[in-house]
Amino acid sequence: MTDGDRLIQMLATRSARRGQFTLASGRQSTLYIDARLTTMSPDGLSLIGPLALATLREASWEVDAVGGLTLGADPIAYAIAYASQIAGTPLRAFTVRKEAKEHGTKRVIEGPFQAGDRVAIIEDVLTTGASALRAIDAVTAAGGKVVGVLALVDRQEGGREALEAAGQVVLALATAERIVAAMSRPVA
Prior knowledge:
There is one protein chain. This protein has one domain: Rossmann fold (3-Layer(aba) Sandwich), CATH 3.40.50. The termini are close together. A six-stranded mixed sheet has the order 5-4-3-6-7-8, with helices on both faces. Strands 1-2 form a two-stranded antiparallel ribbon. It has seven helices and eight strands, in the order H-E-E-H-H-E-H-E-E-E-H-E-H-E-H.
């Protein structure tokens, strides 16, 4: 079993649920994927970091930093940064707040992000693309150059298309289709 297959299985068994759900986008769905149940677990982090880093490298995305809208993107970005340090090619991780702090530095972007950075925007579950677009806007406003969006899961509900229409390249480690297929298979 490949690391990609292990990730699909982990998402299918830990993060995916059937039922009636209202998503963050406001859409109704019979499938809910709470990626945090995978991304915040030790084995999830240790799998996702190297897999996402390899995906960025295979796509030839030469980035300085990775990050996205808090909270979903945070553990993924941190796992990538950690894996990049172990691999000897360090990338910095950052967090985009949903709104600027009203005290201190009043930043929207937290962490070692720098103007001029080439950035991969991280998304945990891509549905409409709205969260990634908010992160893209924040990074661009702060002087960063967005190379593309890396999603842990593409729900295949128009988010990829919305981001591509905005000029972004989108990569995904998993799709809802593959997760649903794994939900119906017995664990090996």
